[in-house]
Request: fold
Amino acid sequence: MNLESHLTDSLVEGLFLFDTQAHLVRINPSGERVLGRSWNAVANESVDEIFSGNPELGEIVKAALSENRAVVHSGVTMPGGEGKTVNLSVSASPIQEADGTILGVALLIRDETLLRDMDRANRRADQLATFGVLNVGMAHEIKNPLGGIKGATQLLGAELTPDSPMMEYCEVILREVDRIDGLLETLLAAVPRGELRTTEINIHEILDEVVHLLKLSEETAGLSFLRLYDPSLPTLHGDRNGLLQVFLNLLKNAVEASASGGEITIKTQVPVGGPIGTSTAPRSGSRGGVLEVVIKDEGQGFDPDIKEYTTPFVTTKSKGVGLGLAISDQIIHDHGGSLVLDNREGGGAVVRVYLPLNAG
Reply:
């Protein structure tokens, strides 16, 4: 692949190249994502066929051809997944020979919704980086005296007889020390992990293990899990324990949001041109494709007034501390992936996890 191909394939904007008859001759991966169709499905189609549901886009391309000038529009809308509408800004520019002869038109489509999500992801990354520094310092300062308290309590307990009324107080102290220590470990889990120790992973095995663990809890009584797995998915390289924690957090949230008799859907697939690396570039050894895990519940969905659910300590749960999504987002970020939270059309939440596939 030459430099030109690398450049077009790396664009976050969708690039469509049309000949002088307004037939498609090239599309990049971001264009496939915007369109929701692959190159093989649209090759050589006319602009009117490709954008049959958006005739405005076809008119823009034909205007650039007939008038031999650049045409720019904003506020163009296109149907997206889950009944959502995607906001686009588009520009069509004639492709010319040195003597002015028109060879075709380049249509560039910017997904403003995706760009907004990327900006939000970058802000989250900055917040989590600051949060990680604070975590390390706080844990260091607290763990040292905590260890002293635990050691002194154990020594005190060794001096007491088993039937001493003071033994109960020692047990309370040790129990609370362990509880604080567990909270510190949870906080440290949100610290950026740097280079991961990865192994080859079957994502379906991880999801099945998480579902099995959740079914052991009384919270899942009356709930059903619908697993729609793509058996052709390849393996990926990742931190198995980290990804277990991610999907345990996400599915536990879905369980807590669901009423008895509800259904939780878990779907795996390779989306056409799915977003990847919105907050970081994919790690070396990944290929252009991505693996998507979709989790849907039938609960109340995300509160539209809260925009940053993955910010540490942001929560709507009465007993939550707001770390589950923050930790999950950081682990996914460390894998070179992205986390997308949204509401379902008709009620409920939908969570999408994108992870890079293995090379080869």
